[in-house]
Design goal:
Layout lengths: L9 H9 L12 H17 L7 E5 L5 H8 L3 E6 L2 H14 L3 E5 L2 H7 L4 E7 L8 H11 E12 L3 H14 L16 H10 L3 E11 L4 E5 L5 E7 L1
Parallel strand pairs: 1-2, 1-4, 2-3, 4-5
Antiparallel strand pairs: 5-8, 6-7, 6-8
């Protein structure tokens, strides 16, 4: 259910707000984000042929792990989120890292009206499965991107394997994530994301999977899209 017209679930916002102070602890509940960040960062940098000098928007930036990573590669980064606590942590961490990111509390829909076709690159990672209306997010990300620009989404597939790995395995067995982090019914199949993206006016560029080996504890980008995946688009 939307909250006062805002495309966000207040329970989801509260869940991540409660953990905000642990965002930059690499051994906390956000350990998986720290471990996959180099993969995501290098993938985005390679696809756009270098982030240096590009105007980049990170939608649902949380505590700023990806935002700072892109800033460290020379991008001019804006990070938006609706969690006051997460944004406060993100801003405080800039004092430690010395990077520059423009963090704002604003919905992506509002920013799309304010700054249409403003960004070379828009990223929306691990967020679509947490909002009431993913299509609205996708449409707004498209509107925010310059013609010929790049849009990246990452989310979780919806199938028995994804339920087993992303919920049972990650939350209950391996305890990589807090219990209740994900809701299976909100997972999105690549075909569904591709359809929404096409309806928003985006052009498919690449679908790639993100896997985790519980024995070696190594994350990798490969063809297996059964659980986590990234989709790259052009406007």
């Amino acid at each position: 259910m939307e909250n006062d017209g805002i495309n966000a679930d207040p329970l989801e916002l509260e869940k991540f707000s409660q953990l905000a102070h642990r965002w930059w602890d690499p051994n906390s509940e956000f350990k998986p984000l720290h471990e996959i960040n180099p993969l995501r960062l290098n993938y985005i940098n390679d696809r756009v042929e270098g982030l240096t000098g590009k105007a980049v928007l990170d939608v649902g930036c949380g505590g700023g792990i990806l935002s700072e990573g892109m800033a460290s590669m020379g991008a001019h980064v804006t990070g938006i989120d609706l969690s006051d606590k997460a944004l406060k942590v993100a801003k405080l961490h800039l004092l430690e890292s010395g990077h520059h990111v423009d963090y704002r509390k604003i919905t992506v829909e509002s920013l799309a009206k304010e700054q249409p076709q403003h960004f070379d690159v828009v990223t929306c990672m691990e967020m679509l499965e947490h909002v009431p209306d993913p299509m609205s997010i996708i449409r707004s990300c498209t509107q925010l991107t310059k013609p010929g620009g790049w849009v990246f989404f990452s989310t979780i597939n919806r199938n028995p394997k994804a339920y087993l790995f992303a919920i049972i395995g990650a939350e209950y067995v391996l305890k990589l994530l807090p219990r209740g982090t994900h809701e299976y019914s909100k997972f999105i199949k690549p075909s569904e994301l591709a359809r929404m993206a096409r309806n928003a006016g985006l052009t498919d560029e690449q679908l790639i999977g993100m896997t985790y080996n519980p024995i070696t504890k190594v994350y990798a980008l490969e063809d297996d899209t059964d659980v986590n995946y990234i989709m790259a688009y052009r406007t």
